[in-house]
Amino acid sequence: MMKTKYSFGLILMLSLLITACGSRKYTVKSDTKAAKAADAMSNLKSKQLYKFITDWTGVKYRFGGLDKSGIDCSGFAFLLEKEIYGVTLPRISRDQASVVKHKSVDNLKEGDLVFFSFGGSNVDHVGVYLNNGFFVHASTNRGVIVDDLNLPAYQRVLVKSGSVN
After folding, report:
1. Where residue 16 sits, what CATH number does that domain have?
2. pTM score, two decimals?
3. Residues forming the active site
């Protein structure tokens, strides 16, 4: 009798556990930074750009780097613009900014460039605009990543944006 009660109790607990786990719904909050970045990627018009970014995402930052063992921001913009748009930019972000025709952030299109000055008044960082306020760049801390241009940290240091054409 004791064995039967024990078996019945064990079966009851297991069935409750199984049904409880089965009824759980897993959702991703659509307002997270990752979800918004994924949304920006899914809204790209150029499938070649999408593939280029996914192939480079996570490649570590290396000053002066120009390959997948490490790349810097201007090298990433240089390669992206050349491979995706057939545009040859200068190699250094400050020089890249000098060949870009100014556009307000509100008028940026996919593939336009955004320039930052983290260390004073000179341009020292570049990214490529995607859509919906997101851009891709080679971050010194996180490597190649899609980031939110509307973050205060970027808004404070954004010094120029525009297109090569």
Report:
1. 3.90.1720.10
2. 0.81
3. 73, 125, 137
